[in-house]
Amino acid sequence: MLHLLTFAVLASCAKEKETVEVQNATENVIKSVDSSRTSTMQNAEYAPAFKIIPLDIAPEKGRSVFTQDGKTLFYFDQNSNKGVIRIDGTDYVLDRFDFNENNYSLYGNGVVIEATNGDFKEMVSDCLHGNFPEVKVSVNGKVLNLVNISLQDCPAY
User: What is the pTM of this model?
Assistant: First the structure.
């Protein structure tokens, strides 16, 4: 009886592990995180709706640049009122940009990007820096949710 009681006490004190799956936009990799270790595994059964190909674009005055892990995923140039996102090797032009509160919306031919609930820092060198826990990208009815997206917005004024 004592062994059964000891087992019950130990089992009730065991720390539950929390597992979180995160999708990286540029790789078909899922990271599982728990309280004891971090592991990365390829998931052959999971394929994202589409793949965003990083762009060779840097922040500058009049440009809003959205990045993940230091790679530019898409941008909008306020001087030309145009931006680009490269999906599955095809460039989609973004021709509308809306900002209110801490939300950004970008639109193009068949593309809608919604970055909501941004956490913004103080302006540094005339640029606003922020982080979005999740950004939704829709293209022709397909949806990809990106996580941990950074923004550097350097207004033209």
Answer: 0.70
